[in-house]
Amino acid sequence: MKSNALIPELIVNDFQKSLHFYVKVLGFKIEYDRPERKFAMLSLQGSQIMINEKNGTWETGKLDYPLGIGINFQIKVDDVQSLLTLLKEQNYSLYEDVTENWYRKGSIEVGHSEFLVQDPDGYLLRFCQNLGERAI
Predict the structure, then answer these.
(1) pLDDT tens for residues 65-105?
(2) Residue range 9-55+71-135, CATH number
(3) CA torsion 33→71→106→127, rounded to 10°?
(4) What is the pTM of this model?
């Protein structure tokens, strides 16, 4: 596994609960972990994220729910519908239902089919599937 240049490390309240959500519900793969430190490096279709149970290290303020206020993580996937099915099977509610959005990129627009869900600690995950490009 080649590491990306930027890999967010999320402080979580309950390592096992978060690990279950990312691996069993969303289908992330454990690239490596340190169970004794309640840490795991996870990946999904080229995206990478680390989770670590809060331990007093690198905490810059009070950690109240929802964590990650002011940020969402865009995660590109091949098929948003299959993730929606997994979430529905596990009775996870969405933060925002699937929508088609087009974003200007220079002289074209790039399309995404996307939805948002919060992880157990409230981090906002935006899963998106590429719909291609179109002229403006």
Answers:
(1) 999 999 999 999 999 999 999 999 999 999 999 999 999 99
(2) 3.10.180.10
(3) 60
(4) 0.93
